[in-house]
Specification:
The complex is a heterodimer of chains A (111) and B (121). Chain A is mostly beta strands and 111 residues long. Chain A is built from no helices and ten strands. By secondary structure, chain B is mainly β. Chain B is built from no helices and eleven strands. Chain B has strands spanning 3-6, 10-12, 18-25, 34-39, 45-52, 57-60, 69-73, 78-83, 92-99, 108-111, 115-119. Classes of the chains: A mainly beta (111), B mainly beta (121). At the A-B interface, strand 4, strand 8 and strand 9 of A face strand 5 and strand 10 of B.
Chain lengths: 111, 121
């Protein structure tokens, strides 16, 4: 069963872009078919930003984009805003009975 | 408007039992999976398991199998998470979330506000 590893922190200035990576420990290719991304502000519930690697739910701005390359999934936040300062989690199918697993989380700081 | 409203904070002693709730509204309760997610203090998100309210089918994370029970009552559009014997390590914020009905993966679009469970002697 896969675990998802993210860098602990990332940062950027307002208006810039930041990219967060998410790598699986297993070689299960299905892991990268179902990657989703969430943003969580302190003491708030997570919010779904991206599903199925690169799709955005209705209402999520196109500043948020997702992709995969090789064994890594990525979330790019363009045009950083103060409200983007938060924790970001990737998520995917983990194999076997582990239908869902979250990444280790990345704290994004807007400088 | 879809809403997931969770029960209030709980303070319990080790060994006690507990059942917390998540009342859904604004959509057809029976046809959307509902998941429970744990977040320990200062830590990340952990998927615990989920239930399909129409037939009460459940799936549990291997990490939580046998430690918790997830149930649902269709008559009141409410999902539950329960423990028979709490441990101090169960201290955490617990979220319920509805499975996003679009797409292929297990994604969650509407979340409850969270229930803080504190287990301490």
């Amino acid at each position: 069963q896969s675990a998802l590893t993210q860098p602990p922190s990332a940062s950027g200035s307002p208006g810039q872009s930041v990219t967060i990576s998410c790598s699986a420990t297993s070689n299960d290719v299905d892991v990268y078919k179902y990657v989703s991304w969430y943003r969580q502000h302190p003491d708030k519930a997570p919010k779904l930003l991206i599903y199925d690697v690169s799709k955005r739910p209705s209402g999520v701005p196109d500043r948020f984009s997702g992709s995969t390359s090789g064994n890594t999934a990525s979330l790019t936040v363009s045009g950083l805003q103060a409200e983007d300062e938060a924790d970001y989690y990737c998520s995917s199918y983990a194999g076997g009975n582990n239908l869902s697993v979250f990444g280790t989380g990345t704290k994004v700081t807007v400088l | 408007e879809v809403q997931m409203v969770q029960s209030g904070a709980e303070v319990k002693e080790p060994g006690e039992s507990l059942k917390i709730s998540c009342e859904a509204s604004g959509y057809r309760f029976t046809t959307h999976w509902i998941a429970w997610v744990r977040q320990m203090p200062g830590k990340g998100l952990e998927w615990m398991g989920m239930i399909y309210p129409d037939d009460s089918g459940t799936r549990y994370s291997p990490s939580f199998q046998g430690q918790i029970t997830i149930s649902a009552d269709k008559s009141v559009s409410t999902a539950y998470l329960q423990w028979s014997s709490l441990k101090a390590s169960d201290t955490a914020m617990y979220y319920c979330a509805r499975r996003f009905p679009i797409g292929s993966g297990w994604n969650f679009d509407y979340w409850g506000q969270g229930t803080l469970v504190t287990v301490s002697s």
